[in-house]
Amino acid sequence: MFAYIIRRLLYAIPILIGVNLITFFLFFVVNSPGDVARAHLGEKYVTQDAIDNWVQEKGYHYPLMFNGEAEGLAKATDTIFFQKSLKLFTFDFGQADDGRNISSDVLTRMGPSLALAVPSFIIGIWVNICVALVVVMFRGTRLDKAAIALLVSLMSISGLFYIIGGQYIVATLWRLVPISGFEPGPMAWKFLILPIIIGVVSGIGLGARWYRTLFLESADQDFARTARAKGVSELGVLFRHVLPNALLPILTGIVVVIPSLFMGSLLMEAFFGIPGLGSYMLDAIRAQDFAIVRTMVFVGSVLYIIGLILTDISYTIADPRVRLN
Amino acid sequence: MPPTGIRLRIKRKAVPYTVLLFSTLLLAACSGSWNDPNPPEKPGEIVYYGSFSTRLQHLDPVRSYSSEEALFIDQIYEAPYRYHFLKRPYVLEPALAETMPKLSYFDAGMNPVASDSPELAYSVYTIHLKKGVLYQPHPALAENEQGQPLYLFKDKQSSQQYTTLYDFPETGTRELTANDFAYGLKRLADPKNKSPLLGFFSNYIVGMEAFSKQATELSGEVSGKGRRQEWLDLRDIPLEGVRALDDHTLTIRIKGLYPQFSYWMAMHFFAPMPWEADRFYHSPGFQSRNMTVDWYPIGTAAFMMTRNDPNSGITLERNPNYRLDPYPSEGTPHDEKRGFLDDAGKPMPFIDRVTFRLEKESLPQWSKFMQGWYDRSGDDSHNISASNFDRAFVVSGNGVDLSQEMIDLGITVSTELKPSIYYYGFNMNDPVVGGYTEQKRKLRRAISMIMNTEEMLEIFANGRGQAAQGPIPPGIPGHVEGEEGINSYIYDWIDNKPRRKTVEEAKRLLTEAGYPNGRDRNNGKPLVLYLDTTGDSAGPIADWRRRQFEKIGIQLEYRSTDYVRFKQKMRNSNTQMFGWGWLADYPDPENFLFLLEGSQTSANCQCDGANSTNYDNPAFNRLFHQMKTMENSSERDAIVAEMVEIVRSDAPWFGGYHTKEYYLNNSWMTNTKRHGIAKDAFKYVRIDTDLRRERQQEQNTPVAWPLIATFVGMIMVVFPAARAYRRRLTLRIKPQIKPQIKKQTQKQTGENS
Predict the structure, then answer these.
(1) pTM exceeds 0.90 for this model
(2) Per the CB < 8 Å rule, is B364 touching A187?
């Protein structure tokens, strides 16, 4: 398995270079370094000298991909792509265009992102599995049909509606929790409870329907029938036999997103005023801060690749027949 | 048998969690309002709760040039001058200066001359500073018993325990001196600090350009290979035009005559900077921990920053070293009636702490204001959306009034007519709409007539604005109200108010311009005009604009692009018509009229010129250069009026308006008068904290029944489901044995017996 992981990590390098290349290309097709400088220097009284100075100091004066005027290796290294994008492989994220240290900001913002994403994720999975198993238990009955109709309705509603509706009803009308904001430490629960509930509720429709489909496939198989014949209760059958046997496709969907939890949620963080990495990315795009955008895309890609590797490893744990070769 | 084991285990597990949940809810209920987003206050402390909507980029006074950032910077830094809080029109008064500047004039050989002398080469501003002004407590100024700085670090390791400015246990202060202003201006001149106004001030302050070059050379910076880390002592590099005559006297020498320079001296670009702070922030490793002057200001004003998390919130606290600064005792007659003079002569500030929270979305921000958790509807912007506006105000023939709901809550309104103008512009180099012939003027005037700005403001802005009669907004010298102030090319004065000329009149002008019924007289083709925009080409406002042009048979097409492309088009003059705007830096007509001066076009200045329309009228340019160097006077007003008339005749702008903003204040707020330019308003604000507490409790009683209903609902769902489940588990297949089988069974039984 160790060799497999090493091999997968090596495969990740060209993928990451490709992702960086695409991000770089997309960003600089839309913006020239001069445009980025103008965005940072403001609208008024900006002189060409100030723009040139900004571009020069930030290292955007190099050619994009190939420096024909340089000698030897510098033809490739004295370029914006090498200086700005390939250096990320050493996890040197450098400074944002506003001068702040990106690593420091990422570390600071990871906490609030995780505080929101981890409980939403764990509770969401637990609720989805429970709802799916209960629906499966009543399969073929009116309750099953009503539950499917409800789940389809829930998944048809836009996520934004849950957020705005939840904020309006729970925080504005009922005044049960603050409508938005974040305080680190023990008071954080007060601000997180509503986004977590909204995150869980908005995910039930899709998640529970998907799990129901998976459980239905296993619910009437021989091992389940045998368990019932042995006198195991229906709950016992579902939780002890059906769930473990339907775990592989569930793990495929779940484990891959675990590392991405660090990246936060764009919508939730923006609407609930949670200073996480999701809103960091959004702010950077608005401010045309390429340094942050490229870092976040890179970190996101790395985490996604780690997620895929973890998924493979989780298969070996969930199903001893699986071997990673 | 039902699986009692599972049931019991669930029940046992559920008990502590349920108890915990209810205890938490009970505790929360006992501790006050459940939805209070603010942290607990210290006893007796007066705290202001506000918000900001844009993540801050810079807090360095020489670098920041945004009104959102000025909201913070101007509470911490002071310039030599400031705007009077109450007086209108806007008036400057001394802030760190003792008196208004003394101005003297010199020729090229530095011999004194009169202000109107043709040989005048320099103007020198002499500023006498207040004595005894102290900086806020700051670790950069902390000293040991021998008078040596306490926090000087040779390498990263020796300072690694300090990750924020607030980790330093000791702070110090010292008196402000004239050299600190000189140092601040030298920082502005150092290209490393990327001041957006370096180029602008280099045109005026003597020696600034030379200083910039020298600073760059001495820094030994390698471009693009990393920022200069070590400290460059700017005291060692002379800046010819800025001199500290003694500790409390500063002179600034500028090229030529520029009366508006006084206004610049009221902006944070002129804030003093102690050299010790610059040295401190260049300590090894500080940059990588975001400990820079860009994030941790050091000033002399009423507040100092004690928490800086641009990602979530910023806290300012009363500067304990702030000098005695009494609340103004003069204002307009209206101010007395509104109670703005009730605190006259009392020492400021009236609040101990200002807490700002980052609120990116307007809905939560508005809700918190209505719940009383924010003291005002907005700080960096009014934050009253169109739907909230309808809730907050009633628009009637008499104007805009507060709604009954707001009156019942005791909410008050502060209006702010910003010294700004938003307009549509014609590219004067465009072959169709540009040019200076009478025909082209008539075409532009016809379009100006049919662009019904009053209707647009009514429909899309809840009437929050005023149609422009010229380039100069109300409140700025040169703006004329009433019949004399109307643009007679577009309006008539009827029933004591301006009335837009009719569509028929516009059609007549269009015919005279060569486009009868919107068709080119020469080839019969329809007149199609293009509006460059960053917005959508469909939607209510886009349709509305199209309909305006259709009134006289002109077809309007949109050329939509993203903002970056739009700016490129503007720079390259690759537009026909476009929307644009300007927010003044200072209250002088020159700051608006220069937007139409010929040398400011992109082509002429080879820069991102402020003259977006490429308007270049020699008569206007000549008058501009004449009025630019004049002090406000009736003679100057006459020149301004002449210039405004030229612009109205040429009509390079159309559909212009000046925004009027409405800010709501909760009932416990006083001294809330808005200033269109200055942002240093928090030291004037007063809060009745007892009333706030009372109102907050009234307005935020939690509605607990949904919680109980949810709990009951869950029981109602779970209980029948559990019963159904148990029924299924105890389900038995009833024996349905057929008669012959029964008989056979009985027979077998009999045989066996």
Answers:
(1) no
(2) no
